[in-house]
Write a structure and sequence with these properties.
The protein has helices spanning 5-23, 34-43, 45-56, 86-101. The protein is mostly helical. The longest helix has 19 residues, at 5-23.
Length: 126
């Protein structure tokens, strides 16, 4: 099994380079046209893949702030977790407000329980 490891690693690098090259925009390919890079990767897998990964693509790096451009438009260019995303939190608050409007207001705050402060049928009780 160990003798197949270099072949598996080479195959992985070639597949990664092919997908990366194929999904890269035409204007981001450096030194050669994108179709030439694809041909190099297919015809010379080791050299073509390493060449593409090292010198073939114009890799854009985010500035130290990580905001990706700093346009000041309030939109982030990177993925944001839902609990840090103000748009998601606003939407969640709106949904909660709609849910509160649909409840009947009969004045009984503890309609789910028997007065002991716990909900009936709470699975944590059992």
């Amino acid at each position: 099994m160990l003798r197949y490891l270099p072949l598996i690693v080479l195959l992985g690098v070639v597949i990664y380079a092919l997908i990366d090259c194929a999904t890269t925009k035409k204007e981001d390919a450096k030194h050669l046209p994108k179709i030439v890079w694809l041909l190099l990767i297919v015809l010379f897998p080791l050299l073509g893949s390493i060449g593409w990964l090292i010198a073939g693509r114009n890799r854009r790096r985010l500035p130290p702030g990580g905001s990706g451009g700093g346009t000041g438009g309030g939109r982030r260019s990177t993925w944001v977790a839902p609990d840090d995303n103000p748009e998601f939190l606003k939407k969640l608050g709106d949904e909660n407000a709609k849910g509160d409007e649909g409840k009947s207001d009969d004045g009984d705050d503890e309609s789910d329980g028997d007065g002991d402060g716990k909900r009936d049928g709470d699975p944590r009780e059992k």
